[in-house]
Amino acid sequence: MSNPLSVQYIQTPRLHIAYEHHGPAEGEPVILLHGFPYDPRSYDEIAPDLAARGYRVIVPYLRGYGPTRFAGPGILRSGQQAALAQDLLDLMDALKIPRAALAGFDWGGRAACIVAALWPERVRCLVSADGYNIQDIAGASEPRAPDTEHRLWYQYYFNTQRGVDGLTANRRELCALLWQLWSPSWARGDALYGLTAPSFDNPDFVEVVIHSYRHRFRYAPGDPSLEHIEQALVRPPPIRVPSISLCGADDGVGPASVEDEDLGRFSGPYQRRVLAGVGHNVPQEAPEATVQALLELLRG
C-alpha cells in the first residue's frame, strides 16, 4: 500500500492535481491512470515494483477524486473524455515530462488512448485495459444487444435526477455495488474497497461523474475550450504507439469478446491479451500481468 505521505501536488491551468510519486526523479517516466469508481490504490502492487526497477512512476488522482481540486469555481466540472485527456497533457507539462509510458483503464484508459492517438510524440508506449477506450459519442445513442444494454444501467441511471440524488446520497454503497458487479470473480475486492472509497468524498465527485455519463450521450454540453479535442475524436483516430490491450474475461461491464474488435484501431505494434478470472479493475486484479506488459513495451 502507498504511504499517504507520498502524495504530492502540482498546479495546472484547470486543476490542483494530487499525485503519488514513486522511484527516482531521473528515471524513465511511467504514468498510471485509474478509472471510475477507483483511485490510485489500483496500482499499489504495480507502482513500487516499477519504481524498484528504476522507473519514475506518477499515479494521479483524476478530476473529482481524492485530494485533486479544481483551480477555481468558474471551471466546468466536466467529466468528458477531452477533459481527461487535457488533464493528462497538463500534468505532463507541469511535471516537465516530454514523453512517458502510459497505462490506464476505464476513464484513465480513455485519457491515455486519446493522448496516444492525438499526441503520439508524447507517448513512449501504451497499456490499455480493454483496448481502444475512445468514445464514439456520435454513435453512443445507438441501441446495443440486450445482453450488453443491461450492463450499462448505471449510465442511464446517471442521466436522471434520481441518479443524481442516488449517487449523492449513496456514493459509497453504489460504487461498492459496481465493484462487485464489474469484478464478480475477484475475491479481494470487498476487503480492498475501503481503501479507495474515501476518494469519492471529493466535493466535485458527483458533478464530474454525472457530467461524464451525460456528455457521452450528448445530453450535456461539453467544455467549449475542449471542443477542438472532441472534434478530433469524431472520426476515431488510430493509435500508432506500441500498445498492449489487457482484457478481463470476467469484466462485468463487457466481458472480452472472442474476436478482437479493436484490431483496426491500432496501426502500430499491438497485442491483445485476455486475462482469465479478471474483471474490470485490471491493474489491481492482475498486477503481474500489467507490470509484465509495461516492461515488455519499455524494454522492446
UniProtKB/TrEMBL annotation:
All copies of domain AB hydrolase-1, residue ranges? 29-282
Q: Does the keyword Hydrolase feature in the UniProt annotation?
A: yes
Q: Which GO terms describe its molecular function?
A: hydrolase activity
What are the UniProt keywords, alphabetically?
Hydrolase
User: Is Hydrolase one of the keywords?
Assistant: yes
Record-linked Pfam families? Abhydrolase_1 (PF00561)
Q: Report what the protein is called.
A: Alpha/beta hydrolase
